[in-house]
């Protein structure tokens, strides 16, 4: 009898051991994503950031479907993008984006993507036939903020940042800009909701605006309200666009006489190196100003980019800045510099969007994407196509191939040489 009992006990012990081992193996085969916060993500080179809009047509009245967004998310995820930025929540795309991410996480427990949710802010009479009143805010700003909060609370594992406004304080945004006091009001409102546990304390609040709006340029922007805003945000999200400055502030862009003996491509390479330095200077100017007000405040790049085509101010008849070769150089140099410095960089943008300049399909605003509308990877990403990063992935039925059919000689024939 004792021998029989020993046999039974041994079987029970062995069964328990193998059950635990099998359970452990199952858990290890499907590891869960560790919960991370904005503090963990921002400045971390393992969480590359990208601006995203998925519109395929020349109007935002045709909303992107959840299935289309999921295609885009898989493409961006393959590039190791884990943080994407939206611009407003009053279009269905923002909610659809969050739904798409949630569905992909259910389908694959290893899928990881987070969102910087943009709440659009503008002034009274913005985008109407009336004169914009930059001293009074739009009545619908409150609705935009309310919707952003609702979405952040509905998707707390996805929404890690809320941005109050996009280039809403810079004065060249003549159609809609507001005073810093308006942005400050809503940032304080969101911070207060966090204190009252009506919004997760881990959600970081910022405003994404031009480097000048953050005190890095014209001193007229350096006001008491801006100082208070810098203290109120969890981090500063600044924009820098050497691309636009090739027209508006072109001294760095013109080929100096000492480079006249260089080949055309060498002149372009040298010009793009100066463009990189220009972006660094704008970042450092903001950093110097912010440091005087809030010494430990993090500063990241909420937007920068380079258009691959233009028939206007930046094209062949203008500053000659626009082509895929230059875009590729700028993308790679910005990724390298920001990773080294511990700066998050939301490169603008993932895909071309033709609604941005509906009246002129050759306008630069339609050509900032790293991919064309039909899913071709531009020069910046050719090396990733070679590495089969996008193997089996498609956009609207199109496989991810290279622009110019991958012919670099054809590409270089389109390169524009900066003016002397």
Tell the overall outline. Answer: globular
Strand order of the largest sheet: 1-2-3-6-7-8-9-10
How many distinct beta strands? 12
Q: Provide the β-strand percentage band.
A: 5-15%
Uncertain runs: 1-29
Annotation field: number of helices: 12
Distance between the termini: 101 Å
Gyration radius over CA: 24 Å
* Class derived from helix and strand content: alpha/beta
Q: What is the string of SSEs from the N terminus onward?
A: HHEHEHEEEHEHEHEHHEHEHEEH
State the major sheet.
Answer: 8 strands, parallel, barrel
Structural features, described:
Helix 6 links the parallel strand 6 and strand 7 (204-210). Residues 1-29 have low confidence and may be disordered. This protein has helices spanning 2-29, 38-41, 66-78, 92-107, 141-154, 180-195, 224-232, 242-248, 264-293, 324-341, 382-386, 408-412; strands at residues 48-51, 81-85, 114-119, 123-124, 133-137, 159-166, 204-210, 236-239, 299-304, 345-347, 394-395, 398-399. The protein is globular, with a radius of gyration of 24 Å. By secondary structure, it is α/β, with parallel strands linked by helices. It has twelve helices and twelve strands. It has an eight-stranded parallel β-barrel with strand order 1-2-3-6-7-8-9-10, surrounded by six helices. A two-stranded antiparallel sheet has the order 4-5. Helix 3 packs across helix 4 and helix 9 packs parallel to helix 10.
């Amino acid at each position: 009898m004792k021998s029989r009992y020993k046999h039974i006990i041994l079987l029970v012990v062995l069964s328990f051991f193998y059950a635990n081992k099998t359970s452990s193996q199952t858990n290890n085969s499907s590891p869960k994503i560790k919960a991370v916060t904005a503090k963990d993500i921002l400045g971390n080179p393992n969480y590359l950031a990208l601006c995203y809009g998925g519109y395929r047509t020349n109007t935002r009245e045709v909303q992107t479907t959840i299935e289309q967004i999921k295609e885009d998310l898989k493409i961006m995820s393959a590039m190791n993008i884990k943080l994407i930025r939206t611009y407003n929540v009053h279009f269905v795309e923002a909610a659809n984006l969050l739904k798409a991410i949630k569905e992909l996480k259910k389908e694959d427990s290893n899928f990881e993507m987070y969102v910087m949710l943009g709440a659009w802010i503008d002034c009274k009479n913005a985008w109407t036939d009336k004169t914009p009143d930059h001293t009074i805010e739009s009545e619908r700003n409150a609705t935009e903020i309310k919707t952003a909060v609702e979405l952040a609370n509905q998707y707390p594992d996805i929404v890690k940042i809320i941005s109050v406004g996009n280039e809403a304080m810079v004065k060249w945004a003549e159609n809609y800009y507001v005073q810093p006091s308006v942005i400050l009001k809503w940032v304080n409102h969101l911070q207060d909701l966090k204190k009252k546990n009506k919004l997760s304390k881990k959600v970081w609040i910022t405003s994404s605006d031009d480097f000048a709006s953050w005190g890095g340029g014209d001193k007229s922007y350096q006001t008491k309200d801006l100082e208070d805003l810098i203290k109120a945000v969890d981090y500063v999200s600044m924009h820098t666009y050497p691309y636009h400055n090739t027209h508006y502030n072109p001294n760095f862009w013109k080929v100096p006489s000492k480079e006249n003996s260089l080949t055309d491509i060498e002149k372009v390479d040298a010009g793009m190196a100066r463009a990189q330095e220009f972006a660094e200077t704008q970042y450092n100017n903001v950093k110097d100003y912010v440091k005087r007000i809030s010494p430990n405040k993090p500063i990241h790049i909420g937007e920068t980019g380079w258009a691959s085509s233009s028939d206007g101010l930046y094209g062949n008849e203008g500053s000659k800045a626009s082509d895929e070769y230059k875009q590729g150089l700028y993308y790679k140099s910005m990724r390298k510099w920001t990773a080294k410095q511990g700066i998050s960089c939301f490169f603008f943008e993932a895909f071309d969007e033709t609604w941005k300049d509906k009246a002129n399909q050759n306008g630069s605003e339609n050509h900032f994407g790293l991919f064309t509308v039909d899913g071709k990877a531009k020069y910046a990403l050719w090396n990733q196509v070679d590495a089969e990063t996008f193997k089996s992935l498609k956009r609207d039925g199109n496989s991810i191939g290279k622009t110019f059919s991958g012919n670099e000689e054809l590409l270089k024939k389109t390169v524009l040489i900066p003016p002397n």
